[in-house]
Amino acid sequence: MRIFIPAKFRSARGWKAPIPSLLRGFPVMGREKRNDAGFTLVELMVVIAIIGFASAAVVLSIPDPRGRLMDDADRFAARMAAVRDNAVIEARPVAVWVSPTAYGFEQYVDGQWQEGDEKPFITTGWSGGTRAVVGGTAGSSVDAGDGGEQGSGRLVLRFDSTGLPSEAARVVLEREGEQVMIVLDGAGRVRVGE
Predict the structure, then answer these.
(1) Whole-number Å distance between alpha carbons of 22 and 17
(2) Residue 186 counted as domain residue
(3) Within-domain flag for 187
(4) I need a surface site. Which of 10, 100, 126, 190 has the fewest CB within 10 A?
């Protein structure tokens, strides 16, 4: 079977595509020219709304540079539990001290108490704006501190080699009206938020 190609579609190289010449003068879909340049008001409002939603999502996902108060409480409770476990593992008494601005750890080595110098048992300050209000049970070892105000002293809790604390205690962390309580019971269990 032979296909006849009119002469006007033949070229020296062979077949010449008839499509452009056949469609001359007819608008091709997607190629029509727009006489107006720019955006419509609706298009502009949609773009502004999308930018607004995206920027709101970014602002809400940025963490508070001071951290959350609950993060401080969880970190402190975890370190206290680790110190208790360390006392059992090493069969050596350890202590935790808490002041309104920081907390730290001590180990009983060669007959004296020494500051912890290895992570995670190093002295750590509370996040910006956080203050600890310390209190123990009756007869607890809370020093009056320099202010003499209740809750402004330094609480020292000692764990013996079996992991039992010297006393039950509570530490309340405060920041801008928000409070979280960390409780150490007589069995050495540490709980947050009770």
Answers:
(1) 9
(2) yes
(3) yes
(4) 10
